[in-house]
Write a structure and sequence with these properties.
about 160 residues; two-stranded antiparallel sheet; about 40% helix
Length: about 160
């Protein structure tokens, strides 16, 4: 293990809560349509429920787009050739993605500044981009981190 972001647990619960909240909000639409057809709900109230459900869906998409790319833990195998990135799925569960260390763009070559809240982990192949926070995460093994991402002294 070369890096750990302990706040990933909070983002996991937030992601799962957002999925549940969106499901409940969308499930409120059919009863709303029924009540409107029976004259028990005004058109303004139905539009409000629909707007809230639409906003909840949009926020779920935006938040899950970010949460799926936020790095919780980074591992490097013993030989230093494979990077394992632990991040979240759409549903808030852990997923491991593997990429060769040779395919990872060093942070010293990227346009991101280490002082920023999030730094991108990019690959030369352009497959997937992850977000790493050096400000709130902990680098546990500086030597292995340096092997993958470049000199830490130039980062901090």
């Amino acid at each position: 293990m070369i890096y750990r972001f302990d706040g990933i647990r909070a983002f996991r619960y937030l992601s799962q809560l957002k999925v549940a909240q969106t499901a409940l909000t969308v499930l409120a639409l059919p009863p709303g349509f029924y009540w409107y057809s029976q004259g028990l709900m005004t058109l303004n109230s139905l539009c409000l429920v629909g707007g809230i459900a639409g906003f909840a869906l949009a926020m779920l998409c935006w938040m899950s787009y970010f949460f799926r790319r936020l790095v919780g833990i980074l591992y490097v195998n013993e030989s230093g050739t494979m990077l394992r990135v632990a991040h979240l799925t759409f549903w808030g569960w852990r997923q491991d993605t593997y990429c060769p260390v040779a395919n990872v763009i060093p942070l010293t070559e990227s346009q991101d500044r280490p002082q920023e809240l999030f730094v991108r982990i990019q690959q030369y192949s352009g497959e997937q981009t992850f977000y790493l926070t050096l400000r709130y995460g902990r680098v546990l093994d500086r030597d292995r981190f340096r092997q993958v991402f470049g000199m830490l002294e130039t980062l901090k």
